[in-house]
Specification:
Elements (H helix, E strand, L loop, with lengths): L1 E4 L6 E3 L6 E3 L10 E7 L4 E6 L4 E13 L6 E4 L2 E5 L4 E5 L4 E7 L11 E4 L1
Antiparallel strand pairs: 1-8, 1-11, 2-3, 4-10, 5-9, 6-7, 6-8, 6-9, 6-10
InterPro entries: Cupin_2, RmlC-like_jellyroll, RmlC_Cupin_sf
Protein name: Cupin domain-containing protein
Pfam family, one: Cupin_2
């Protein structure tokens, strides 16, 4: 399990085409990729299971906890991303609710685009 950040501070100022915004890059793929938005209400849970393919969880709002097979829950919040390798056991839960983007692909390598926050 690896943790990344995609908050504003990790982004790059874009001014091309008379633009004025900050872009935090996340991932790039050439192969089939599934992208979804996950909404967990209060006390929501994504049960303990193995990742079918490499999976990147991007917390957009709210907060929760995640774990792998170590049983230690680690807090995650908006602007943070969690990466699980194929076959890695994991679980996500929240007491207050959270919204996240989930990206699944055999071709994920988030360390090429986002700064590593910590590895577990």
């Amino acid at each position: 399990m690896e943790f990344y950040t995609f908050n504003k501070e990790s982004g790059k100022q874009i001014s091309k085409f008379n633009s004025d915004f900050i872009m935090s890059r996340i991932i790039q793929t050439d192969k089939a990729t599934n992208i979804g938005c996950m909404h967990l209400d209060k006390n929501g849970i994504v049960g303990y299971h193995q990742a079918v393919v490499p999976q990147l969880l991007l917390i957009l709002s709210g907060e929760g906890t995640v774990r792998n097979d170590q049983e230690e829950y680690i807090k995650v919040q908006a602007g943070e991303a969690v990466f699980w390798e194929k076959d890695e056991w994991h679980e996500t839960k929240t007491t207050e609710g959270l919204t996240a983007i989930v990206i699944e692909s055999f071709e994920l390598n988030p360390s090429l685009f986002m700064p590593v926050q910590k590895e577990i």
